[in-house]
Amino acid sequence: MAAQPKPLAFEHPSYLHDPGGIWSWITTVDHKRVAVLYGITALFMMAVGGMEAMLIRAQLMVPGNHLLSAAAYNEMFTMHGTTMIFLVLMPLELGFFANFFIPLQIGARDVAFPRLNALSYWVFLGGTIFLHLGLLRSIYGLPDAGWFGYANLTERMYTPGINVDCWDIGLLILGVSTLLSGLNFFVTIVNLRAPGMTFMRMPMFIWAMLVTTILILLAFPALTVGLIFLFADRFLDTHFYRVSAGATPILWQHLFWIFGHPEVYIMALPAFGMISEVIPPFSRKPLFGYPMMAYSLVLIAFLSYGVWGHHMFATGMGPIADATFSITSMLIAIPTGVKIFSWLATVWGGRLRFTTSMLFAVGFLVEFTIGGLSGIMHASPPVDLQQTDSYIIVAHFHYVLFGGVLMGILAAFYYWWPKITGRFLSEKLGKAQFWITAWAFNATFFPMHFVGVLGMPRRIYTYAPHMGWDFWNYFESVNAFILGFAFLLFFINIIWSAMDGEIASSDPWDARTLEWSIPSPPPAFNFAAVPMVTSRDAFWVRKYGTVGTHGVAPAIAGGAAAAPIGAHAEVEEHIHMPAPSLYPLIFALGVFLMGVGCLVWTRLIIMGGAVTVMSVIGMVFEYPSFGKFDPAMIAESTLGLDHRKVGMWAFLGSECVFFASLISTYMVYKDRNLGGFDAMILNIPLTSVSTFVLLTSSLTMVLALAAVQRDDRKWSVFWLASTVLFGCIFLGGQAFEFTDFVMQGLKIQTNLFGQTFYTLVGFHGIHVLIGVCWLIVLTIAVARGKIGKDRSLAVEIGGLYWHFVDIVWVIIFTLIYLMRTVKHA
Amino acid sequence: MSDHALNPAHAGHDVSHEDHPGPGLYLLIAAILTVLTAAEITVFYVPGLQPVLVPILLVLAIVKFAFVGMFYMHLYYDSKVFTTLFVFPLLLALLIVFGLLLLFSHLQGVLSFVVP
Ligand code: HEM
Ligand SMILES: [Cu+2]
Q: With a CB-CB cutoff of 8 Å, which residues 80-109 of chain B face chain A?
């Protein structure tokens, strides 16, 4: 290593203090600060969700208890699940750790879309508040139909009031936030890695996050569609989930679990990644079986789309479906087993250091395996029919989510905290927390296997005495309170560390990956000079060469003494950090207002929508570089591609699942229609004309792009305006069609055909409408000379969206209109 | 694709404008799309073709879909990364559609006893 220069941290203040002031945090787009915002919010919600758990256990402590009413109990278990999943685990993993460490581990200065990242946070905060809005109306205003929100309990006639409304809209808002983070991190990992960091050199955490983001992009749309149907049922009086209209509540279960099982891996895989970062440094060995670790992540993710039915064995899907879902579910155990054994092999023969972080990692291995084993039990349909909806399921998912995922997160906290804050968490308190957790967690949740098998159903607010459940419930509750105490220690530890924690060096664990090569806490720009990566475990190799890259490394420490990478290099001349922006917050405010509008005052929806649209436009034109073709950025990117285009394509991929969910609902419900109007009402001549119009608009769109690329302003404006015109004609045709149907008597509430037709074609129409607005903005910008050849990318991306809407129409025209007589299901 | 990372010089190549098709090709595609759409509508109205309606319409739709994707959306000319980003989710979406159709065909059979 070159001579040791002065530590950088002295010259460059850390991201925490530069720039200062509350305002700089509100407008921040720095991924590290956004991460901290996520972290604070999620930790707060962890305390809230923990209290809810304490109340649940207090209620169940003795039989016939009346501490909570049945209604309050329903709220507690619903909000406990919803909170822990959507407001604690996911934001801690994605918003906090992934946000902070993806750029640091891949040697980037920020995520691909920094403002979008801030936007995700503010929308997340809005969604979090929204879920709890019902409290303003009454203490009994919280959502109360379970985190899975099973239809038809969620219908207005069974759950009137604001509770489920807040849940439905709140989750839709959170979905926007998650999808955008997923998109952002996906593009970041795919396209922003430091030179030399090939896929097979990425830290395993990055692999895990890459796969997780793909799962997010391709799973959340199914939930969104399910929630939209629920919204329609509750607000527009449709009957997507009402048996009386020929529909079936099972549809909700399918949509929910098509999302739901990938969702459990959206929570599990990041924890897998964290464990894979923590175990090697504390074993002084490289991760065992790196390629298999990576491939098994991919395989798990892939399989996780084919197993959703294992949550539905009790619905009577039939022997073929049951067998299929059972086999695919059991198959997942294979790649999962590969991972467990690889972690064990990493530990095996290593020079182990049982720091708190390592303890939690080992805890993860043990508890997660127990949870995986009970999972395989439920994966067998006849066994599951006995176990489903009993406490053994509660035991299973707490072993995987608490013993597994949360322990992984705690391991990550103790491991990465020094990098985030520059101070250690107390090891003493940490170890106390670990041992208390290890005891109390198992003592709380293991007996749930027993009471489950003894027949205690989940989701009941109280139970009769002498069922054989009394002792274990009492035991579980006492230990649950001890478990709560362990978390109190954690929060004390955090506060203590912030005030008085031991100062950490840049590489306190003698670790392997790039984030440890820069000061703790890092400066705003992360890397003074972009690192060059020549191998896996990039920082380790820089420190020690190939020593310890294959087997266990010698015990001599020295990591802390090694110079941070880039410290000997001058800080690069021009580091362009994105400027702060207020628009993300305004956007989130607009979305929040729209949600509130649905609840109280319809006009607020329009106002909120206007705020949202204005903030998007503001954000787009805020940077002088909007739409600019940037050769430097492309040269630095991993794939040699523009982030914005990669992002757009990934988004369109996600849209495919969205429309697939809408289209399949139409196809299955069409044949369950109980009379009245059906597809024969569809006006083929009219839509044929519309189809030609939309196809022509695609032609004018490509001609517009070609003109912009020629820098021919006159023709650019002409073709763009024509596209807008054709888009408007199409929308006009659709407005005519809808009005005509309504006049004939087919409303969205009329029957299954009406509701699925209007939602599918209507959502396509909304996409066209968004496209038209987008194109109008582009046309004006081109006409005013703001977009020329060098910014043709702006038009290209708008065009991609426009063509996508066109090809969706190609499918709709065929399946819905031309095949109107065909039976599908 | 990971090779790009090894070779930053190579990664800088400009995939943009030069190799894009010109208006001539766009017009040709538009003509083809128009003809295909006309064919779709014709098939719909010809009584003799009703038995093979579904396969014909599906093939025509897929061809139209592919033409727009490949040429208007430039997948044919652009980096294969974009094609992957789009086609993989598309296949998954198809699997979901087929899966749901199959599952509901069964449900339909069972529930017809319950719901007349
Ligand atoms: C070998 C791996 C796994 C298998 C075979 C498996 C199987 C199952 C099955 C069959 C059920 C449904 C039981 C029922 O309701 O009757 C279930 C429920 C559940 N599993 Fe797993 N599982 C596995 C891993 C995981 C992981 C890794 C997580 C999360 C990180 C997880 C989270 C859950 C949750 C939250 C539920 C309950 C959902 C609800 O009804 O609210 N599982 N699991
Ligand atoms: Cu599952």
A: 81-82, 85-86, 88-90, 92-97, 100-108
How many Å apart are CA A462 and CA A36, to the nearest integer? 40
Q: Shortest CB distance from B26 goes to which of A702, A815, A819?
A: A702
Residue A556 in this model has a pLDDT that exceeds 80: no
Who among B65, B102, B107 is closest to A250 (CB)? B107
Higher-pLDDT residue of A801, B23: A801
The dihedrals phi and psi of A215, each to the nearest 5 degrees, come to -60, -40
Are the Cβ atoms of B79 and A650 closer than 8 angstroms? no
ipTM of the complex: 0.87
| Position B55 in a domain | yes
Q: Are residues B27 and B73 in the same domain?
A: yes
Least confident of A564-568, A587-591, A704-708: A564-568
Nearest-Cα residue of chain B relative to residue A672: B108
The count of structural domains within chain B is 2
Look at domain A30-500 and name its CATH class.
mainly alpha
Mean pLDDT of chain A: 90
Do B88 and B65 reside in the same domain of the chain?
Answer: no
Domain boundaries, chain A: 30-500, 583-623, 634-818
Residues with CB under 6 A from ligand 1: A 148, 264, 267-268, 310-311, 329, 332-333, 336, 372, 375-376, 378-379, 384, 387-388, 393, 396-397, 400-401, 404-405
Q: Do A814 and B85 touch (CB under 8 A)?
A: no
- B27 with B70, same domain: the answer is yes
Question: Which chain B residues contact residue A665 at CB under 8 A?
Answer: 100
Residues B66 and B113 in one domain: no
Report the pLDDT value the prediction gives residue B6, as an integer from 0 to 100. Answer: 36
Reported as a single tens digit per residue, the pLDDT across A584-632 is 999 999 999 999 999 888 899 999 999 999 999 888 888 777 777 777 7
Give the model's confidence band at A440: pLDDT under 50 very low, under 70 low, under 90 confident, else very high: very high
Q: Does residue A309 sit at the B interface (CB-CB below 8 Å)?
A: yes
Work out the number of other CB atoms within 10 angstroms of the CB of residue A527. Answer: 25
Which of A303, A378, A459 to mutate to test ligand 1, by most ligand atoms within 8 A of the CB atom?
Answer: A378
Does B50 fall in a domain? yes
Distance A375 CA to ligand 1 centre (A): 6
Same-domain status, B115 and B64: no
Question: What is the reported pLDDT for A314?
Answer: 92
B90 in the same domain as B67: no
Nearest CA in chain A to B74: A800
Q: Which domain holds residue B71?
A: 19-78
Q: State the pTM of this model.
A: 0.92
Record: contact A699-B44, CB cut-off 8 A: no
Q: Look at residue A32 in the predicted model and tell me its pLDDT.
A: 93
pLDDT (0 to 100) of residue B22:
80
Q: Which residues are CB-neighbours of A223 under 8 A, at least 6 positions away? A: A171, A175, A255, A256, A259, A260, A263
| A558 CB-near residues (< 8 Å, 6+ apart) | A510, A543
Question: How much distance in Å is there from the Cα of B27 to the middle of ligand 2?
Answer: 49
Distance CA A54, CA A718 (A): 65
One domain for residues B69 and B24 = yes
Exposure b/e, A568-607, CB count within 10 A at least 16 = b: eeeeeeeeeebebbebbbbbbbbbbbbbbbbbeeeebbee
- B23 and B72 share one domain: yes
pLDDT for A17? 84
3-state secondary structure of B98: helix
Give contacts of A 442-461 with B, CB under 8 A: none
> CB of A241 within 8 A of CB of A247?
yes
A-interface mutation test, from B4, B78, B85, B86, most A Cβ less than 10 A away: B85
What are the pLDDT digits (tens) for A476-495? 999 999 999 999 999 999 99
| CATH architecture entry for A634-818 | Up-down Bundle (1.20)
Tokens standing for residue A278: 């923590």
According to DSSP, the residues that pair with A218 across neighbouring strands are none
